[in-house]
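Handoff note, outgoing to incoming analyst
You'll be picking up this chain. Sequence as last confirmed:
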Amino acid sequence: MDRDAKLYIDIPCAFEAAQRASDLGIGPRLMLADVRSGILIMEDLNHGWRVGTLERMLEPAIVDAVIGADACSRPGKPLPRRKSVFDEIDTFTLP
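Most recent structure output, in case you need it:
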């Protein structure tokens, strides 16, 4: 993780989310996660994969996959920290 990631990412929570997604089979397989050093090594999904940007949500198959992954992750306990995009907007815009 880049040093400045601490400004906008709760690294322990992100690493826990990555581990849970790996365990559930809805994210890349996690090879190593060391919160203290900020090292997160995941399976290489280079072939046939790309970043899930907003325009991908116009593709029905992608929307179905996201909804399926969300449903798969819901029965587990909540992550230690939960913020919506609106919380983040407030964090960076309010004085």
